Structures are given as C-alpha cells and as structure tokens.
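Model it.
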Amino acid sequence: MMIEKYISALLYRYQCVTVPGFGAFLAETSPARLDSTTHTFYPPKKLISFNANLKNNDGLLANHIALQENISYDEAVAAVQKQTTQWLYMLESGQPLLLKNLGHIARNAEGSLVFTPDTPVNYLTDAFGLSTFTSPAVKREEYIGVNDTEEAEEEVPVLVAAQRRRSYPYLKYAALFAVALTAGGAGYKTWHEQQVAKETLLVQQQVQEEVQQRIQQATFFIENPLPAVQLTVKEEVTVMPYHIVAGAYRSEANAATAVAQLKDKGYTKARALGINKFGLYPVIYGSYSDAAEAQNDMNAIRRGENSEAWLLIKEL
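Modeled.
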C-alpha cells in the first residue's frame, strides 16, 4: 500500500502527520516572499519537514486509511506497519527512500535520517490558485544635472533703472476709511452676539423653572398594576471548533484515566469527547474559539508536554 498519498492528503488539513514506528511529517506555514535577485514572487506555502523522533501512533493516519480503503482500524495499522518495515529495510541497505510529493529520505555518514523536501504541490489551502511569477525589473531614469552636461552659463548682471517714485496722497485716506469701517463692523458683530447669548440664557432659565414646577406638582397613581413578567434570557453560546488532542483511546475507561492525568498536571479544561466514527474516544487539553490561540497553545504543549499533540477542527 502506497501510504505516502494518504500522508499528502492529511498535510492539507493538519500540521503533523505521524507514521507509527517511522517518524512524523511536519508542515509549517511560510509567508509570501520576493527574491530580489531574480525578481520572482513566491506565494505563501507549507514547508514540509521530517522528525524521526516522533514515532508514537496518534491514530490519525490509520483512521484516515481505514476510512479511505473501507477497512478496519486494525487492518489499517497493520498496513502502515508493513509499509514502514519496507522503508526501514531500504534505508538500512543504503537505498534512498523517495516519497512522491513529499521528498526523499536517506542516511548520512553518522547513520541519521536526512530528509530533503520535494513538494511540487502547495499544501496551504489558503494559497489555492496562486502561482510563482517573475516580474521584470523596473528601470528608473537617472537625473543628470546641468553641470554634468555643459558648463554653467555666465551670469549677466541686470541693471534696473531707478524709477521715479510717485506720491499718491489720496490712497492714505482711503486706507484709513477701510480700517475704520472694518473695526466698526467687527464691534457691532460682537455686541450683537453678546445680546443674542444673553436672551438665549434667559429663555433657558425660564424653561428650566417651568419644568421643575411641573415635576413638583405632578402626582402619579397606578390603580391596577400589571403582574410581574419573568423573562428568560437565552445565554449566548460561544462556538469552539478548535480542540488540542492529546490522544485517542479505544477504551472509554482509558480515556477517563488520561483526562484525570491531564487535570492533575493543571489542564483543568481537559475532557474526553464522544466516541467518533472510528470507535475511538479523543482526549483533549481544551477547546478554543480562536484558531491562532489554539495553534499557539498547541505549539507550547508540543515543546514542553506532548510532542505528539495535534489540532482537531470540529464543531461539537
């Protein structure tokens, strides 16, 4: 069975796909970038890496294969184990392992597994339809000064003949009249605004006094009061479709034990979800309404608590 195609399918939705007994393929989102040397624009994508230390079975790959091949979970686990045995045999014999749409794996001189990604497809669904393109360089014209092309022309002094100053005495009186007229208009405007403000204040005071008198004189009687009405307010439910999964268990008792262990470690929101269509009981650290917050907490749990934790996106 060629299980690499199922690994590729899961990498579209998950950041970690573990192959039991072999290792885990990790997907990390890389933003769009520009190669200034070649003027090439690259869309955002998922960078695929491999970690040979993550080998425990989290049930994700086997569940997916069982669903796609219409076989039982145990049969899917056996098929994965058979495939990984062949892979390890090839690597031990010095043959490189080529996985379609993922990359190739080989052993170095120290005997460690070295993964070289080769992903012609973009596993980031948000970047669907975006492709790499090259834009020609923009050529800008350089400004060349006059001194760089020709010598500066000699400055020719310009002689301005002195003109006879004429006297216009009547302009002085016209200016004085304009200043006086402007000052008079401004003074009248200020006086008028002050009078309007005073009258407005008096009217407002009279209105306030009348309102206060009417309030003091008013008396209200309710002869037949209506019975009290009880309103039921429906609480708004926050949708939390993001769940950090610690593991999936076939036994409900084992799932309950795992929940108790997580709560002892301080994860007070830990709980077991209902049985899924694969007959397993997922145990989660907690549920979130925000994808970014769930991703950050999952990364923290992977670094310090459980390197095999993964994110389940499902509305319960």
